[in-house]
Amino acid sequence: MTSEHFQVLLLLLFCVLHSSEQTCPSKCLCMSDTVRCSSVGLHKLPQSLPSFPANLDFSHNHITWLDPDTLTKTPRLEKLWMAHNEIRTLSHNLFRNVSGLRLLDLSSNRLQMVEQHYFHGLWRLEELRLFNNRITLVEGSSLSGLSSLKKVYFSFNQITHFPFFSIQDHTHPFLAMLDLSSNRMSSLPWEDVKALPQLVQQGLYTHNNSLICDCSMYAMFWHWNLSEYNSIKDFTDEHTCNVNGDPRRSIRFFRDKRFFRNCTVEKSIMQPVTVLLSDVVVFEGNRVSLDCQTSLSSTNLSFTWLSPNKGFITQSSMNDTLISMLPDGTLEIHATTINDSGVYLCTAVDIKQALNATREVNVTVLLPTAEPFNTGYTTLLGCMVTLALILTYLFLTPCRCSFCKQPPAHSNQGTLSCIFSSFTREQPNTDTLKHVAFLEHPMGEERIEWIPQS
After folding, report:
1. Is 253 helix (H, G, I), strand (E, B) or coil?
2. pLDDT digits (tens, 9 = 90+) for 347-396
3. Alpha-carbon span 397 to 388, nearest angstrom
């Protein structure tokens, strides 16, 4: 076999192997950026997957195990659906080659715990679905490193304790929903809950648990209800507690208030949330400062800004050289653009008193334009110019007639004679044509006579 034949053989082999990698798995449907293998009776992931997909759907199958080597061939993966399978645990380094994953759906499986290594490396993950499993334990560092996380669903499990202390502003700056509803928690560590970022508190769902009635729990729910958090408004009747831990004596927090009539709600908690409004108008390219002055007077406040085009901004998450936040919560935009227009919401939080206040600033960025044209002044100027031209024409028209060149007795007489002579010199030369002249009246008055043409 010659070297040329050997090279051709290698090329053919490479083409065959490359095409096999791009082959759509049996029973699956492959589209432009999606491979769908839902409800096809799979017991394990296919051995080979195309490298192009950004979305993989293996939901509603019988998969019990995820091979770590399977996902290494899909580096572009962004969304993975594994719901309604029989997965009991996740292996180490399962997601080592898919750091760009943004959605992971493991709901309706048989997971019994969430270990600290499960989601290692998924720093771009935004949504994690773990509801309807059999989870009883969530390890403290299981969510660490998930700095882009926005939504986490733990509902319909068997969780008795949750590591609230592991969620802080600098670790999860974008987390806006933490669903722990329909679990088996009998109490909540209120010191850790009150220390949660304000954004997390607004999206914390704890209804349909086995909470034991006590005054601290009632005070917190009362405060959230006063602040009109959706987690309370949308599930008012589902917020229940058991009297003395007896599930047969379950009452509703917001319907059976007589049970809590002896509870003392702190004065700071009873104060309503204050919303201050402000409007700011700025030209594009200029610097603007948005203050966060609220009704809170404490010096130990934390601030969070919600920007219309940059999302949530905190002091610990500042990574943009075009904006900065001062210690007093003032947000500075160094060079405004049209995209910076919109409503900015600042939330000031006093963690010790469990109180917050917000301030809205409506920013309007205008394009720099010339000073508007004043039509009133323009009209007046036009009139003055026109009048000046008329007077110039009337009094400064040169005399070219022999009659006007005669020395007048009075200067004004000669001028007026010049004017009328100039006016009539362009008329046709007819027998009846007459010149107009101003003659001085014996009494000193001027009169007009018609002098026939000679």
Report:
1. coil
2. 888 766 666 777 888 888 888 764 444 555 567 777 788 888 887 777 77
3. 13
Decide: 188 and 210 in contact? Cβ < 8 Å: no
- Which DSSP state fits 262? T
Q: Do residues 158 and 184 lie in contact, with contact meaning Cβ atoms separated by under 8 Å? A: yes
Q: 98 is written with which tokens?
A: 């898919």
Do 272 and 280 form a contact (C-beta atoms < 8 A)?
no
3-state secondary structure 305-332: EEECCCEEEEHHHCCCCCEEECCCCCEE
Instruction: Quote the pLDDT of residue 440.
Output: 45
What's 332-367 look like in SS3? EECCCCHHHCEEEEEEEEECCCCEEEEEEEEEEEEC
- Coil, helix or strand for 56? strand
Determine if residue 204 is left, alpha or beta; phi over 0 gives left, psi from -120 to 50 gives alpha, anything else beta: beta
pTM exceeding the 0.85 threshold for the entire prediction: no
* pLDDT bracket for residue 317 (50, 70, 90): low
Alpha-carbon span 428 to 275, nearest angstrom: 86
Contact 290, 362 (CB under 8 A): no
Could you give the C-alpha distances from 178 to 75, 122, 162, 200, 275, in angstroms and in order? 28, 18, 11, 7, 25
DSSP reduced 3-state for 160 = coil
- What is the rounded CA–CA span in Å between residue 383 and residue 343? 47
Give dist(CA 4, CA 10) in Å, integer: 10
3-state percent helix, strand, coil for the chain, nearest multiple of 5 = 25, 20, 55
Q: What letter would DSSP give residue 30?
A: E
CA distance 430 to 433: 5
Q: What is the DSSP letter of 243?
A: G
For residue 163, what are the contacts with CB-CB under 8 A and spacing of at least 6? 138, 139, 140, 142
User: What backbone torsions phi and psi does residue 197 show, to the nearest 5 degrees?
Assistant: -55, 145
- Contacts of 334 by beta carbon, 8 Å cutoff, 6+ apart: 287, 321, 322, 323, 324
What's the confidence (pLDDT) of residue 362? 85
Contact status, residue 203 vs residue 232, Cβ threshold 8 Å: no
Look up residue 306 and give its amino acid. Answer: L
Q: Which residue from 406, 436, 443, 407 is spatially nearest to 422, judged by alpha carbons?
A: 436
116 and 144 in contact (C-beta within 8 Å)?
Answer: yes
